[in-house]
Amino acid sequence: MRRNSFHFWSIGLLTLLLLSGDVAPSVYGQRALSADEVMQKAVERARWSAAQRARPNYTYTKITLAEELDAAGRVKERKERFYEAVFDSGLTYLKLVKVNGKALPPGELKKQEERELKDRETLAQRKTVKGGDDRENFLTSELIAKYGFALVDRKPVNGRPAYILTFQPKPGLLQKQVADRLLNHLAGKLWIDEQEFEIAKIEVQLQSEVTLWGGVLASLKRFTFTLSRTRVDDGVWFNTLSTGDFEGRKLLDNAHVRTQSESTNFRRVEGRRG
């Protein structure tokens, strides 16, 4: 699969996420919060989580799948990657182990180790500036300010009560950077854990086609994304399953990509690793 095509879609994947505003009746015997109150608590929780310095460490496995489809929806190319992941002192490190079920050859393994070392240095610098790993903590005041919210229900997710909210982009949003072209056109639904105000689930879709340079450089016609997060311990949540479906054009080439990422087998470990 062409690397530049996946780079285009990776920009879309890195820009995601969410939110919503109104009052719903109490289901669990507590005072009903407004959607704005729920989202404010969720942002405060994300900020608090990112600032924690003494969180437990975990190891787990992560499998990602990317498929490029032809015009008829048939798979042209498929790439599955298997990672060993470490969550250490608030940062997530990924070690690529297999591609399409095969172990990396020695030469590629050496290159991968060099990339991992650079990733660790980059993440450590980012943590110094931001206080956490934004691959797990993506909820910010600036992001939710783009959307209007409606609290539509309260139902359990994985046995835990959750607020269900819908969100729509506010009218007249400015496009200050490239990511805004996507974020300003996203709508969807999210589930916020009622006890810890962590995001438990997200569904996002593109409302209208997004273009770059007037459509000359690229366009994104369809974008759907789902994310599920799981509580593995008191106050500890991880992204566990995500799916994406992206269709558009880069220069003269049409592209249709499906993605999936699944993390499993979370194991708590003592002390620092790596």
What is the strand and helix layout of this fold?
Blueprint: H1 3-14, H2 35-51, E1 57-69, E2 75-88, E3 91-99, E4 102-103, H3 106-130, H4 141-144, E5 147-157, E6 160-169, H5 178-183, E7 186-193, E8 199-206, E9 210-212, E10 218-233, E11 236-250, E12 253-269
Antiparallel strand pairs: 1-2, 1-12, 2-3, 3-4, 5-6, 6-7, 7-8, 8-10, 9-10, 10-11, 11-12
What is the residue-mean pLDDT, rounded to a whole number?
A: 81
Net shape? globular
- Given helix and strand content, the structural type is alpha+beta
Approximately what portion of the residues adopt beta-strand conformation? over 45%
Q: How many strands appear in the DSSP assignment? A: 12
Helix content: 10-25%
| Uncertain stretches | 1-29, 129-135
Q: Distance between termini?
A: 32 Å
Structure description:
By secondary structure, the chain is of the alpha+beta class. The protein has one domain. 23% of the residues lie in helices and 46% in strands. The protein contains five helices and twelve strands. The chain has helices at residues 3-14, 35-51, 106-130, 141-144, 178-183; strands spanning 57-69, 75-88, 91-99, 102-103, 147-157, 160-169, 186-193, 199-206, 210-212, 218-233, 236-250, 253-269. Strands 1, 2, 3, 4, 5, 6, 7, 8, 9, 10, 11 and 12 form a twelve-stranded antiparallel beta sheet that branches. A hairpin with a 2-residue loop joins β2 and β3. It starts with a helix and ends in a 5-residue tail after the last strand. The model is unreliable at 1-29 and 129-135 (pLDDT under 50).
